[in-house]
Amino acid sequence: MDIVFLDFDGTINTFSAGDNFSQAACANLNLLLKQVPEAKIVVSSAWRMWGLPKMKEILAKNGIDKEKVVDITGDERGIRGYQIQCWLDRNSKVNHIVILDDESDMGDLMKYLVKTNSFIGLTEADVKQAVEVLKTPMKGKND
Predict the structure, then answer these.
(1) Which structural domain, as residue segments, surrounds residue 70?
(2) Is residue 141 one of the residues assigned to a domain?
(3) Which residue, 67, 71, 86, 136, is the most exposed by fewest CB within 10 angstroms?
(4) pLDDT in tens, 81-112
């Protein structure tokens, strides 16, 4: 399974008010999902605390296929990378990941990070990099 860990603020929400996200950034997320059709989304954003159904609703409102959204990371305390690692520890069938985030607090998962510009959001160049990252097998896993 291929997973896109998705932050909202600074990635697809370029600090606008409410849950109307950047159209360009959302189009670029759709481009990534089109280029890697087997990829699924796990919301790693702080918004995840509203629950998976609300995440699907917000993403669908912004043109993202809600069927691609399969989970949210847990409520573990600590840096985002730790929260993602905890999710990975609970989900062993993951072969490839990419983390889309405007922060760098990924710990040992830094090589899977595509860091976005908080004011621009996800770009086509970021998508190109994300596709390459998704080709990198997780440590200790085979393709």
Answers:
(1) 2-133
(2) no
(3) 67
(4) 999 999 999 998 999 999 999 999 998 999 99
Which sign does the torsion angle of CA 72, 112, 109, 77 carry?
A: negative
Q: Which residues have CB under 8 Å from 61's CB, separation 6+?
A: 19, 20
* C-beta neighbour count of 138 within 10 angstroms: 15
User: Using one digit for the tens of pLDDT, what is the confidence trace for 57-80?
Assistant: 999 999 999 999 999 999 888 899
Q: What angle do CA 99, 103, 105 make, to 5 degrees?
A: 80
Residue 121 lies in a domain: yes
pTM above 0.85, yes or no: yes
- Would you place residue 140 in the very low, low, confident or very high pLDDT band (cuts 50, 70, 90)? low
At residue 142, the pLDDT reads 41
Residue 26 sits in a domain of what CATH number?
A: 3.40.50.1000
Q: Is residue 138 part of a domain?
A: no
- Count of domains forming the chain: 1
Backbone CA torsion sign across 96, 101, 106, 112? positive
